[in-house]
Amino acid sequence: MDFNRKAMIFSVSVLGLSLTIFLFAYMVFGDNTDEDLRTLRQVNMLLCYQLIFRHGAKYPDRAYRKDYLHQEIQASDPGSLSLSGSLQMYNLGELLRHRYIKLFPNNGFYSKKFIQVKSSWMDRTIASALSFLAGFMPPLQNTNPLPIPWQPVPVVSIARDRDDLIAQKRACARYDEVYKAQMNSEEIKAIDERSKNLYKILSKNTGENISSIRDVEFLQNTLEAEEAASWEIPDWTEDFYPSKTLPLAERYLRLLTETPFMKRIKGGPLITEIIETMVARKNQLSEKAISIYSGHDVTLVNVMNAMHILNQTSGKPDFAAALAIELHLSLDHKNDMDVKIYYYFNSEDKYPKSIKIPSCDSPCSLDRFRKVMNGLIVNDFEKLCETA
Ligand SMILES: *[C@@H]1O[C@H](CO)[C@@H](O)[C@H](O)[C@H]1NC(C)=O
Ligand SMILES: *[C@@H]1O[C@H](CO)[C@@H](O)[C@H](O)[C@H]1NC(C)=O
């Protein structure tokens, strides 16, 4: 009797223990592919990383003429980060905190030596950066001087007319000329011709003059923001949005960096800064481990198209999509380090997509990365922008 009971307790315990081990193993390894496991190991060798994200969901910038959501839009704060957008950015911050926490200083406090956060000039990107940081860098419980789990982390916003990094609106006369020529290229004319009927229907339903892929992109943005606000968009959109409008909006975004010159002007300044940060870190000239850039869908598209990696991600990034560029100690390259790039499709994306860097082996060394990106480096923006 006694023996049987002991045996039973023993078997139950063994069973319980096996189950625990199994569950633990499942938690650690279960959902992960080999690629994820490699990634997890590599995080231990991470030295520095740079993150570029699109702001979270926003309220529409403006209604189209026949928009029956006029009142809702006016009652919101047009163009600003919405409440759900703020939560998206907080969630993204919390998600990435777990991946990058090993880089944080032991005391958990912000220091300008260790992290820099830059934003475009707009309310929604600044608010996105702040929401992100609330999830990304809360203070440690035992050293927090405030009654809420939050610490101030400065966000530098760049004036629009000087911003060649994030919104990339700094004036460039030569770019404007090339842009105009690209909008009138044979390919785009052919697209406009093919889309004539669509433009007509969209114009009729919106009360706007929709006559180019640029106009379609405006409409795509408005409908996207209205949907994200959980407002009901009208039935007529069903046949066109997003099935017909999205490919045209994506084509417009890609056109902004169509030629090598356009890639350099739009994507070059940020890529130049990112490379400089990584080189300084590698050469131990800087302790900067984290750089964050809070931007727009065009920020991501311009940078990714300039690097020729756009076709591995999304042609029109979702709210809170993010691109991470990481610098790792290398097992493969002597006296050099590895550059790795990951893409988060949205704020729920637990397993980011590993991006293949064109013309570079995997792992891609920092030295090789610099060579591949050499044509994008910008040292004298104004000179490049002079017209003939
Ligand atoms: C719509 O805009 C295009 C391009 O700006 C212009 O050529 C066309 O005349 C406009 N159509 C109407 C009906 O206003
Ligand atoms: C993406 O485009 C590059 C050229 O820029 C090409 O070499 C590559 O095969 C494409 N990748 C995919 C996934 O289509």
From TrEMBL:
Tree of life domain: Eukaryota
Record carries keyword Membrane: yes
UniProt keyword terms in alphabetical order: Membrane, Transmembrane, Transmembrane helix
MF terms in GO: phosphatase activity
InterPro entries: His_Pase_clade-2 (IPR000560), His_PPase_superfam (IPR029033), Histidine_acid_phosphatase (IPR050645)
Keyword Transmembrane set for record: yes
Membrane-spanning intervals of the chain: 7-29
Pfam families xref list: His_Phos_2
Gene3D superfamilies per the UniProt record, alphabetical: Phosphoglycerate mutase-like
Entry's family note: Belongs to the histidine acid phosphatase family.
PANTHER family found in the cross-reference section: ACID PHOSPHATASE-RELATED (PTHR11567), GH19849P (PTHR11567:SF19)
Name of the molecule in the record: CLUMA_CG018973, isoform A
Species, as recorded: Clunio marinus
Upper taxonomic lineage: Eukaryota, Metazoa, Ecdysozoa, Arthropoda, Hexapoda
